[in-house]
Amino acid sequence: MKKFLYLSIVSAFFISCGNDDAPVESPNVAPTTPTLVSPVNNKLCTNNSVSFQWNAATDSNNDAIRYQIQVAKNIGFSNIVMTTESSAIYQNFTLEKATAYYWRVKSTDNKNLSSTYSTVFSFYTSGDGVVNYLPFSPDLVSPELNSVLITKTAKLQWTAKDVDAQDKLVFDVYFGTTNPPTEKAGVNQEAISLDVNIVASKEYYWKVVVKDDKGGETIGQTWKFRTN
After folding, report:
1. Where in this chain does the record put each Fibronectin type-III domain (predicted)?
2. What is the model's pLDDT at position 130?
3. CA distance 185 to 157
């Protein structure tokens, strides 16, 4: 009986020590989202050989980080013209002249867990003899993309920029339940918002066409939201 008790106590001691000393593995966490540095947002680049730079991301697990940069001709990134991955926080690309570009960066650790993409920055490459640059594509403010509204009206809001700072911008707003929207809810308006009436249980689509006072115009991407 004494021998049995002795063995039981010794076994319990080793089991207890084994549990206390078991390593606790930290869950993998995605690295932080990079912040863009240059070219700065809404810049006119005097050279079509463009140097891109961003701030380094951090990783709470101290994993090695690589970065993916995407450069596109549209703000929706369906027309990507340059993309690459590396551990560097800079890249150099030679691009077309007199063209609007949009760029973003994300970070990925060595376990393939990625951050979200950074804020999108836009810029123009200068062109020989160009006297007017088209406005940039408008940026969505509200309602958030794919959001659900329970009100009877919606305030459509956006922002728009032009590297020709002296240009006056006006907007045509297309809004409706068809994709893409074809009916104009606002024409040549200067305001960057528009109130529209909505009904329940519908999906709505809208887009903004930005026009400058020299005849240039840029068609924005289609945004959508739905009602409850």
Report:
1. 30-128
2. 87
3. 13
Identify the band that residue 23 occupies on the pLDDT scale cut at 50, 70 and 90: low
Element (DSSP H or E) covering residue 28: none
User: Under DSSP, is residue 5 helix (H, G, I), strand (E, B) or coil?
Assistant: helix
Across-strand partners of 55?
none
Question: Which bin fits 13, alpha (ψ -120 to 50), beta or left (φ > 0)?
Answer: alpha
Round to whole Å and give the CA distance between 112 and 118. 17
DSSP H or E run through 120: none
* Nearest Cα to Cα of residue 98 among 171, 163, 170, 169: 163
CA distance 205 to 225: 7
Q: Look at residues 90, 162, 104, 96 and name the one whose alpha carbon lies nearest to residue 125.
A: 96
Q: Could you say which DSSP state residue 193 is in? A: E
Buried b (16+ CB within 10 A) or exposed e, 60-93: eeeeebbbbbbbbbbbebeeeebeeeeeebebeb
> What is the rounded radius of gyration, in angstroms, for the C-alpha atoms of the chain?
27
Where are the CATH 2.60.40.10 domain residues in the chain?
A: 36-125, 139-227
Which architecture, in CATH terms, is 139-227?
Sandwich (2.60)
Mean pLDDT of the chain: 92
Out of 2.120.10.30, 2.60.40.10, 3.40.50.300, 3.40.50.1370, select the CATH number for domain 36-125: 2.60.40.10
pLDDT digits (tens, 9 = 90+) for 117-167: 999 999 999 999 888 999 999 999 999 999 999 999 999 999 999 999 999
- Please count the other Cβ atoms lying within 10 Å of the Cβ belonging to residue 143: 21
